[in-house]
Amino acid sequence: MEERYTTLGEFIIKKQEDFPYSSGELSRLMNSIRLAAKIVAQKVNQAGLVDITGAFGKENIQGEQQQKLDVFANDIFIQTLVNREIVCGIGSEENDDFISICGADGSNNNKYVVLMDPLDGSSNIDVNVSVGTIFSIYRRISEDGTPVTQADFLQKGINQVAAGYVIYGSSTMLVYTTGNGVNGFTLDPAMGTFFLSHPDMKIAEDGAIFSVNEGNFNQFEQGVKDYIGYCKDHSYSGRYIGSLVADVHRNILKGGIYMYPGTVSKPNGKLRLLYECNPFAMIIEQAGGKATDGKQRILEIEPTELHQRVPVFCGSKNMVEKLERFL
Ligand code: AHM
Ligand code: MG
User: Which residues form the Fructose-1-6-bisphosphatase class 1 C-terminal domain (predicted)?
Assistant: First the structure.
Protein backbone atom coordinates (compact mmCIF):
# COMPACT_ATOMS: atom_id res chain seq x y z
CA MET A 1 0.00 0.00 0.00
CA GLU A 2 1.37 3.43 -0.88
CA GLU A 3 2.08 5.69 2.06
CA ARG A 4 -0.54 8.25 1.09
CA TYR A 5 -3.27 5.69 1.75
CA THR A 6 -2.10 4.74 5.23
CA THR A 7 -4.84 5.20 7.80
CA LEU A 8 -4.22 6.20 11.39
CA GLY A 9 -5.53 2.81 12.52
CA GLU A 10 -2.99 1.01 10.31
CA PHE A 11 -0.23 3.36 11.41
CA ILE A 12 -0.90 2.65 15.09
CA ILE A 13 -0.76 -1.12 14.46
CA LYS A 14 2.44 -0.74 12.43
CA LYS A 15 4.04 1.27 15.25
CA GLN A 16 3.14 -1.46 17.72
CA GLU A 17 4.73 -4.10 15.49
CA ASP A 18 8.03 -2.21 15.87
CA PHE A 19 7.88 -3.26 19.55
CA PRO A 20 6.98 -6.95 19.45
CA TYR A 21 6.96 -7.31 23.24
CA SER A 22 4.64 -4.36 23.87
CA SER A 23 1.29 -5.07 25.52
CA GLY A 24 -0.62 -3.01 22.95
CA GLU A 25 -1.94 -0.73 25.69
CA LEU A 26 -0.59 2.45 24.11
CA SER A 27 -2.05 1.43 20.74
CA ARG A 28 -5.45 0.88 22.30
CA LEU A 29 -5.16 4.21 24.06
CA MET A 30 -4.33 5.98 20.80
CA ASN A 31 -7.29 4.27 19.15
CA SER A 32 -9.57 5.60 21.88
CA ILE A 33 -8.27 9.13 21.34
CA ARG A 34 -8.79 8.69 17.59
CA LEU A 35 -12.41 7.71 18.20
CA ALA A 36 -13.10 10.57 20.63
CA ALA A 37 -11.52 13.05 18.19
CA LYS A 38 -13.91 11.98 15.44
CA ILE A 39 -16.92 12.41 17.69
CA VAL A 40 -15.80 15.87 18.83
CA ALA A 41 -14.93 16.88 15.23
CA GLN A 42 -18.43 15.99 14.14
CA LYS A 43 -19.93 18.06 16.95
CA VAL A 44 -17.64 21.05 16.35
CA ASN A 45 -18.66 21.04 12.69
CA GLN A 46 -22.28 21.34 13.76
CA ALA A 47 -21.60 24.22 16.12
CA GLY A 48 -23.38 26.79 14.00
CA LEU A 49 -26.29 24.50 13.23
CA VAL A 50 -27.46 23.26 16.56
CA ASP A 51 -28.00 25.08 19.78
CA ILE A 52 -24.70 24.07 21.24
CA THR A 53 -22.57 27.20 21.21
CA GLY A 54 -22.56 29.82 23.92
CA ALA A 55 -21.90 29.81 27.59
CA PHE A 56 -22.84 26.80 29.65
CA GLY A 57 -23.25 28.92 32.74
CA LYS A 58 -20.56 27.17 34.75
CA GLU A 59 -17.05 28.24 35.62
CA ASN A 60 -13.99 25.99 35.56
CA ILE A 61 -11.27 26.05 38.21
CA GLN A 62 -9.57 29.09 36.66
CA GLY A 63 -12.80 31.08 36.97
CA GLU A 64 -13.34 30.98 33.20
CA GLN A 65 -16.72 30.30 31.70
CA GLN A 66 -17.00 26.86 30.21
CA GLN A 67 -18.63 26.59 26.83
CA LYS A 68 -21.06 23.82 26.04
CA LEU A 69 -18.61 22.27 23.64
CA ASP A 70 -15.86 22.31 26.28
CA VAL A 71 -18.09 20.22 28.48
CA PHE A 72 -19.08 17.95 25.62
CA ALA A 73 -15.49 17.37 24.51
CA ASN A 74 -14.37 16.75 28.09
CA ASP A 75 -17.14 14.20 28.62
CA ILE A 76 -16.47 12.40 25.34
CA PHE A 77 -12.73 12.03 25.90
CA ILE A 78 -13.25 10.91 29.51
CA GLN A 79 -16.05 8.48 28.65
CA THR A 80 -14.13 6.99 25.75
CA LEU A 81 -11.08 6.37 27.89
CA VAL A 82 -13.02 5.16 30.93
CA ASN A 83 -15.41 2.88 29.03
CA ARG A 84 -12.58 1.15 27.27
CA GLU A 85 -10.72 0.64 30.56
CA ILE A 86 -7.58 1.86 28.93
CA VAL A 87 -6.00 4.24 31.47
CA CYS A 88 -5.67 4.40 35.24
CA GLY A 89 -6.15 8.15 35.55
CA ILE A 90 -7.12 11.30 33.67
CA GLY A 91 -6.23 14.93 34.32
CA SER A 92 -8.19 17.53 32.41
CA GLU A 93 -7.95 21.29 32.17
CA GLU A 94 -11.70 21.31 32.75
CA ASN A 95 -11.57 19.30 35.99
CA ASP A 96 -10.41 20.64 39.33
CA ASP A 97 -8.77 17.38 40.31
CA PHE A 98 -7.50 14.28 38.54
CA ILE A 99 -9.81 11.33 37.99
CA SER A 100 -8.74 7.97 39.35
CA ILE A 101 -10.14 5.05 37.40
CA CYS A 102 -10.58 1.88 39.41
CA GLY A 103 -12.41 -1.38 38.95
CA ALA A 104 -15.08 -2.55 41.41
CA ASP A 105 -12.36 -3.99 43.65
CA GLY A 106 -10.54 -0.64 43.74
CA SER A 107 -7.67 -1.81 41.55
CA ASN A 108 -6.53 -0.82 38.08
CA ASN A 109 -3.83 -2.62 36.17
CA ASN A 110 -3.51 -0.14 33.32
CA LYS A 111 -0.23 1.71 33.27
CA TYR A 112 -0.93 5.03 31.55
CA VAL A 113 -2.38 8.35 32.66
CA VAL A 114 -3.70 10.93 30.19
CA LEU A 115 -3.61 14.68 30.66
CA MET A 116 -5.61 16.81 28.26
CA ASP A 117 -7.11 20.11 27.31
CA PRO A 118 -10.25 18.70 25.67
CA LEU A 119 -11.17 21.86 23.76
CA ASP A 120 -8.56 24.56 23.74
CA GLY A 121 -9.46 28.00 22.44
CA SER A 122 -13.14 27.36 23.00
CA SER A 123 -13.89 31.08 23.24
CA ASN A 124 -13.30 31.02 19.46
CA ILE A 125 -16.12 28.61 18.68
CA ASP A 126 -18.82 31.22 18.39
CA VAL A 127 -16.85 32.97 15.65
CA ASN A 128 -15.99 29.83 13.69
CA VAL A 129 -12.27 29.91 14.40
CA SER A 130 -10.30 26.66 14.68
CA VAL A 131 -10.14 25.00 18.08
CA GLY A 132 -8.29 21.92 19.22
CA THR A 133 -7.72 19.09 21.67
CA ILE A 134 -4.30 18.67 23.27
CA PHE A 135 -3.21 15.43 24.98
CA SER A 136 -0.29 14.01 26.80
CA ILE A 137 0.38 10.42 27.96
CA TYR A 138 2.60 9.32 30.85
CA ARG A 139 3.42 5.96 32.38
CA ARG A 140 2.24 5.93 36.00
CA ILE A 141 4.96 6.05 38.63
CA SER A 142 2.83 4.68 41.48
CA GLU A 143 2.60 0.94 41.89
CA ASP A 144 0.51 -0.96 39.34
CA GLY A 145 -2.84 -2.05 40.66
CA THR A 146 -3.15 0.74 43.22
CA PRO A 147 -5.20 3.92 42.72
CA VAL A 148 -3.25 6.70 40.96
CA THR A 149 -1.83 9.56 43.01
CA GLN A 150 -1.18 13.21 42.17
CA ALA A 151 2.50 12.34 41.63
CA ASP A 152 1.50 10.30 38.56
CA PHE A 153 0.30 13.55 36.98
CA LEU A 154 3.00 15.90 38.25
CA GLN A 155 5.74 14.43 36.10
CA LYS A 156 8.23 16.40 34.07
CA GLY A 157 7.41 16.70 30.37
CA ILE A 158 10.48 14.67 29.46
CA ASN A 159 8.63 11.64 30.88
CA GLN A 160 5.87 11.89 28.28
CA VAL A 161 5.39 8.65 26.38
CA ALA A 162 3.29 10.35 23.73
CA ALA A 163 1.74 13.73 23.03
CA GLY A 164 -0.50 15.11 20.36
CA TYR A 165 -3.21 17.45 19.29
CA VAL A 166 -6.31 17.48 17.17
CA ILE A 167 -7.08 20.62 15.21
CA TYR A 168 -10.70 21.13 14.23
CA GLY A 169 -10.02 23.47 11.33
CA SER A 170 -11.01 23.72 7.69
CA SER A 171 -10.19 20.04 7.92
CA THR A 172 -9.67 18.01 11.09
CA MET A 173 -6.15 16.79 11.71
CA LEU A 174 -4.67 14.58 14.41
CA VAL A 175 -0.94 15.10 14.95
CA TYR A 176 1.03 13.01 17.43
CA THR A 177 4.39 11.72 18.50
CA THR A 178 5.50 8.74 20.54
CA GLY A 179 9.02 10.12 20.78
CA ASN A 180 10.17 9.05 17.36
CA GLY A 181 9.16 11.91 15.08
CA VAL A 182 5.82 13.59 14.47
CA ASN A 183 3.12 12.44 12.08
CA GLY A 184 -0.07 14.19 11.01
CA PHE A 185 -3.32 12.59 9.84
CA THR A 186 -6.20 14.34 8.09
CA LEU A 187 -9.78 13.21 8.60
CA ASP A 188 -11.72 12.37 5.46
CA PRO A 189 -15.18 13.36 6.72
CA ALA A 190 -16.99 11.29 4.10
CA MET A 191 -15.26 8.09 5.18
CA GLY A 192 -14.74 9.00 8.82
CA THR A 193 -11.12 7.91 8.46
CA PHE A 194 -7.87 9.67 9.35
CA PHE A 195 -5.24 9.31 6.60
CA LEU A 196 -1.53 9.93 6.98
CA SER A 197 -1.17 13.29 5.22
CA HIS A 198 1.89 14.79 6.92
CA PRO A 199 4.52 12.09 7.53
CA ASP A 200 7.56 12.97 9.63
CA MET A 201 6.67 16.63 10.22
CA LYS A 202 9.61 18.99 10.70
CA ILE A 203 9.57 22.63 11.72
CA ALA A 204 11.99 24.82 9.74
CA GLU A 205 15.02 25.94 11.77
CA ASP A 206 14.36 29.52 10.69
CA GLY A 207 11.01 31.16 10.28
CA ALA A 208 9.50 34.55 9.66
CA ILE A 209 6.27 34.44 11.66
CA PHE A 210 5.88 35.64 15.25
CA SER A 211 2.72 34.89 17.19
CA VAL A 212 1.98 36.79 20.36
CA ASN A 213 -0.91 38.74 21.88
CA GLU A 214 0.51 42.22 21.38
CA GLY A 215 -2.33 43.69 23.42
CA ASN A 216 -0.22 42.69 26.41
CA PHE A 217 2.94 44.35 25.01
CA ASN A 218 3.27 47.05 27.69
CA GLN A 219 3.28 44.37 30.37
CA PHE A 220 6.05 42.23 28.83
CA GLU A 221 9.57 42.18 30.21
CA GLN A 222 12.06 44.29 28.28
CA GLY A 223 13.76 41.33 26.55
CA VAL A 224 10.46 40.17 25.04
CA LYS A 225 9.66 43.71 23.90
CA ASP A 226 13.10 43.96 22.30
CA TYR A 227 12.67 40.62 20.53
CA ILE A 228 9.29 41.69 19.14
CA GLY A 229 11.04 44.87 17.92
CA TYR A 230 13.65 42.65 16.25
CA CYS A 231 10.89 40.67 14.49
CA LYS A 232 9.39 43.91 13.20
CA ASP A 233 12.76 45.29 12.12
CA HIS A 234 13.10 42.14 10.03
CA SER A 235 9.56 42.49 8.63
CA TYR A 236 8.47 39.14 10.04
CA SER A 237 4.75 38.49 9.73
CA GLY A 238 2.69 38.87 12.89
CA ARG A 239 0.12 36.06 13.00
CA TYR A 240 -2.03 35.49 16.08
CA ILE A 241 -5.30 33.63 15.95
CA GLY A 242 -5.64 33.41 19.72
CA SER A 243 -6.21 29.68 19.47
CA LEU A 244 -3.08 27.87 20.60
CA VAL A 245 -3.51 24.73 18.54
CA ALA A 246 -4.11 26.70 15.35
CA ASP A 247 -1.27 29.15 16.00
CA VAL A 248 1.28 26.45 16.79
CA HIS A 249 0.09 24.13 14.01
CA ARG A 250 0.58 26.90 11.47
CA ASN A 251 4.02 27.71 12.84
CA ILE A 252 5.10 24.06 12.71
CA LEU A 253 4.10 23.90 9.05
CA LYS A 254 5.44 27.30 8.02
CA GLY A 255 8.21 28.05 10.52
CA GLY A 256 7.73 30.59 13.27
CA ILE A 257 7.70 31.32 16.99
CA TYR A 258 4.74 31.26 19.38
CA MET A 259 5.00 33.28 22.58
CA TYR A 260 2.81 33.58 25.64
CA PRO A 261 5.12 35.51 28.00
CA GLY A 262 4.48 36.43 31.58
CA THR A 263 2.99 39.87 32.17
CA VAL A 264 3.09 42.28 35.09
CA SER A 265 -0.35 41.15 36.20
CA LYS A 266 0.19 37.44 35.29
CA PRO A 267 3.90 36.68 35.76
CA ASN A 268 3.39 33.05 34.70
CA GLY A 269 1.39 33.91 31.60
CA LYS A 270 -1.77 32.06 30.77
CA LEU A 271 -0.97 28.65 29.40
CA ARG A 272 -0.91 25.51 31.52
CA LEU A 273 2.25 23.47 31.85
CA LEU A 274 0.62 20.06 32.01
CA TYR A 275 -2.23 20.42 29.56
CA GLU A 276 -0.80 22.76 26.93
CA CYS A 277 2.92 23.53 27.21
CA ASN A 278 4.38 20.07 27.83
CA PRO A 279 2.56 18.29 25.00
CA PHE A 280 3.43 21.04 22.53
CA ALA A 281 7.02 21.15 23.78
CA MET A 282 7.39 17.42 23.08
CA ILE A 283 5.83 17.74 19.63
CA ILE A 284 7.91 20.77 18.70
CA GLU A 285 11.15 19.20 19.92
CA GLN A 286 10.32 16.01 18.06
CA ALA A 287 9.81 18.15 14.95
CA GLY A 288 13.24 19.75 15.45
CA GLY A 289 12.19 22.95 17.24
CA LYS A 290 12.62 24.31 20.77
CA ALA A 291 10.35 25.22 23.68
CA THR A 292 11.39 27.24 26.73
CA ASP A 293 9.81 29.28 29.51
CA GLY A 294 12.58 31.82 28.99
CA LYS A 295 14.80 30.28 31.66
CA GLN A 296 14.70 26.56 31.03
CA ARG A 297 13.48 23.89 28.67
CA ILE A 298 9.73 23.44 29.18
CA LEU A 299 10.14 19.65 29.33
CA GLU A 300 12.47 19.91 32.32
CA ILE A 301 10.23 22.02 34.54
CA GLU A 302 9.29 20.20 37.75
CA PRO A 303 5.50 20.56 38.05
CA THR A 304 4.14 21.54 41.43
CA GLU A 305 0.41 21.70 40.76
CA LEU A 306 -2.06 20.35 38.23
CA HIS A 307 -3.18 23.69 36.83
CA GLN A 308 0.22 25.40 36.97
CA ARG A 309 0.85 28.11 34.37
CA VAL A 310 4.20 28.93 32.79
CA PRO A 311 5.41 31.46 30.23
CA VAL A 312 6.10 29.74 26.91
CA PHE A 313 8.20 30.50 23.83
CA CYS A 314 8.28 27.74 21.24
CA GLY A 315 8.84 27.08 17.58
CA SER A 316 11.66 27.26 15.05
CA LYS A 317 14.98 26.50 16.74
CA ASN A 318 16.91 29.55 15.57
CA MET A 319 14.06 31.93 16.39
CA VAL A 320 13.76 30.61 19.96
CA GLU A 321 17.53 30.80 20.40
CA LYS A 322 17.54 34.39 19.13
CA LEU A 323 14.80 35.27 21.60
CA GLU A 324 16.77 33.63 24.43
CA ARG A 325 19.65 35.99 23.68
CA PHE A 326 17.30 38.96 24.20
CA LEU A 327 15.96 37.68 27.54
P1 AHM B 1 -8.31 28.15 27.01
O2 AHM B 1 -7.55 26.90 27.37
O3 AHM B 1 -9.10 28.65 28.15
O4 AHM B 1 -9.09 28.00 25.75
O5 AHM B 1 -7.22 29.32 26.80
C6 AHM B 1 -6.08 29.10 26.05
C7 AHM B 1 -6.10 29.99 24.84
C8 AHM B 1 -5.14 29.51 23.81
O9 AHM B 1 -5.76 28.74 22.84
C10 AHM B 1 -4.65 30.79 23.21
O11 AHM B 1 -3.37 30.65 22.68
C12 AHM B 1 -4.68 31.73 24.36
O13 AHM B 1 -5.67 31.25 25.24
C14 AHM B 1 -5.04 33.11 23.93
O15 AHM B 1 -5.03 33.94 25.04
P16 AHM B 1 -5.18 35.53 24.88
O17 AHM B 1 -6.57 35.77 24.47
O18 AHM B 1 -4.85 36.06 26.23
O19 AHM B 1 -4.18 35.96 23.84
MG1 MG C 1 -6.50 25.58 26.91
Answer: 203-326
